[in-house]
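Structure, all three chains, one model.
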Amino acid sequence: MPDSSRVARPGGDRFEIAVDGQPAAAYDGDTLAAAMVAAGITRFHSGVDDSPRMVLCNMGTCFECTVTVDEVPLQRACLIAARPGMVVTTESAR
Amino acid sequence: MSARYDVAVVGGGLLGAALARELASDGVDVLLLERDQINQHASGRNAGSLHFQLEYRMIERGLDAARRAAEAIPLHLESARLWQELGAEIGPALGVAQRGGLMLATDAEGARRLEAKAELERSWGLEVSVLDRTETHRLAPYLADTVLAASYCPDEGKANARTAAPALCRAAVGLGADVLTRVGVTGLEREGSRWKIRAEQNSVPMTFEADIVILAAGVWCDELAAMMGSAVPVEPVALTMSVTARTAPFTPYLIQHAGARLSLKQTAEGNVLIGGGWPARLASHADGTVDLRGRGEIVSTSLAGNAAAAIAAVPSVTSLPVLRTWVGTTTLAPDQLPVVGPLPGAPGAFVATGGSVFTLGPAFAVLLSELVQGRTPRLDLRPYRVDRFDRDEAVRDAG
Amino acid sequence: MSTYDLGIVGAGPAGMTAALTALALGLSVVVVDEQQRPGGQIFRQPPASRSPIPKGVAGYPWGQSLVADAEASSGRDGIRWCLGATALGVLEDDAGLELIVRQAARTERVGVRRLLVATGAMDLPVAFPGWTLPGVVTAGGMQTMLKAQQVLMARNVVLTGGHPLLLLVAGLILDAGGDIAEIALPRSRASLRDLPRAVGALPGHLGVLANAAATAAKLARSRVPVRRGAIVTAARGDGRVEEVDVAALRADNTIDPEQAPRTVPADGVVLGYGFQPATDLARQAGCGLRWDSPAGGWVIAHDDDLRTTVPNIFVAGEPAGVAGADQARAEGRLAALMVAASVRGDDGVADNDVESARRDVRRARRFASVVQRLFEPPRETLTDLARGDTTVCRCEAVTRDDVEVAIEANPFLSSTNALKLECRTGMGPCQGRYCELTTAGLLARGRDMSMEQVGPLNAQFPIRPATVGEIGRMAEPE
């Protein structure tokens, strides 16, 4: 149920980002983490034990919302703004 | 009455742990004293390289210096063999993987230097071959295009600096050694034919007695030697290390550079360890003298230089996240050779230090164990004797 | 390399106040914060493009104008706001301190004559079975995602923890249309009736609890089960939280092993056990720490004038002891005055100002220390929530069993740092912030030592990961 987690209709412009090759909606003003949660994504990266991980702290300290953004690994989705055309890859266990 | 031992080893790094294990395995009643925790200083902070080729620091000063450094190759060969044995005996906690080492050259002068170096090393019995550009890139396609040649030594590799010393300590304890941490030695006095060791644990005084004392305390060897009226002419050197997040395995090799300070390798978990001897800042007292108990500090230009050297050799590391950097403080003697043997003027006291002690630790442990048990050491230790330079000369040269 | 009189890391109440105070005294100031706008976690702002600054946080009438003043100062001579920027650490060169700042993949060395650590606090992490599952979120995380992004991370949640912020978050979830399956509250020394008096001294948007009765009434109207003497002991689910175990606590806050936990269907768990000071920058800089459990655990040692043990480094706000926004603001002002005095000599600052700033800090501290004791987390019970196979180090997937095996197998090992090296706990990207207290607690117990004896983890540069490329470019001229 994409977008069902949005409490209010976002005021900003709608655009698309790509998450693992799939288009996802985001709005101006979204952090990447918010856009991904709203898109129904629950596995942001996989732990070294291959377990799914998702936003825990939303303030940049826990590194559980990390994704690869435009080929740079370990980016904290909670701190960066979603931008049109952003290419996001959820990170697999190493 | 204080506890009595045949041998007391002071310093719980890789060497101290290896010594305790070696001596205990011969049935020697051995005590290991560590002021902090096992493996907390140079041994746990170095790159864990098992490097047997002559290093950048040994060849940067020309062929004569390299020839002198090459005299230590028998130690390297013995260590290569011993690491392999220990790895088989102790298992994964030691993290021994001797899958070869590459020393890179990125210009014609460097390639020539590799040839001369390899010839010298082979003359001492170390297996080294120089690979041309094509062979090098076939072996390691992730190396930068600028790499023109590499010398390859199949014995080189790595051990796990994080876990090796504790693993050796566990083995020592299993063989009957006593290992005490948080015990700082405050005095070493000769009493008859024994050493009386004064120490403190959490400010509580303790004493021990031992027939033999071996100093394996890295940068602190000199101040301990001073307690015995002796001296170890080595100087502390603070070095920079970095480690990245895990990444998919891409290299089994220890990668070094003949013309730049660089060592790079991948751990069993996939982290990339980057070092190579970039200087860091030693802590200092208010009066400017070196504070060996203080924390060494990263220097931004060194850290950046080390990262740039890593990228220049292996461009794909550029996007890897660095998780930590740290400073390890090692010792170097003025002539860059190890310092191993009896402590002058202190009967029944021995020392081993002076650089590459991680790589050479197992050899030092065996040699010292033979020495203190009155056997003839399997290698000639004369080139490494403590009194080969007088103190003044040592200080001047190191400065 | 540009050099500033004062570098401030953290743009919350302490950092903003210090910046504006120092600017008014004529110092040159640089402020670094990872968020896009000043405010810190407590006054965290929605993105500028989305809405105007929201109404002030009740209980902190000064908050809104402080944020507005901070934003208005941007562009003035003498102050630089590095927002959306990460302080990777503080190093020293021959000229003095240098703050390493990364902003949009560009790494810069910024010279600072004095450094103020105003890095705030983070939610206290508590390891329990299933806490790595998606849907488990901290109270602060849930709250900021709702307030700054208007996104609800779970639809039907169980909230647990003894901190009053939890009730505020419960109210926000209901307002947002979410369901609350249950609120499980361990016993604290405070009752709900104490909350209104405590509000002003607590971190988080607790001003809202000035109207605690209304919050409680809202929870009652929504028929939210609020259970005192209860705690979440496990979360389970395939790929995300699907059900949650809630256990009863005895009067001493220990879990009653006789009583089986109840299982509650839920898709989220909100953890609100309180806060721990964010001390990593200070640790990396070599500042001494002090163990103070009511103040949040490891706090940065400091004197009455907020000097740390490292020359030229000061601290203000939660890293000096979690004590709430009023105290953070008071400390921010005092720290800026002390910095000005130390840069300029004592003549640069009026004695009256210093005296009044010291008085404000003392007053705030008296109130805060009472509150700290009321809501001190039951650390022993929390340590034991982790079972043998529970992940305690999330980054490296180190379990409690792994930690205890390392403790058992290495009888000579007795420091948290040595334990880290032995079993990799704390060696991942979060650098030990989320496992330190659990592993140190296990070690202290295993060795019958105090937390002071086993000690804190070291923090090393960079305190947030930076790529090899970013570090390689660090020394480039601007």
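Helices of chain A lie at 32-38.
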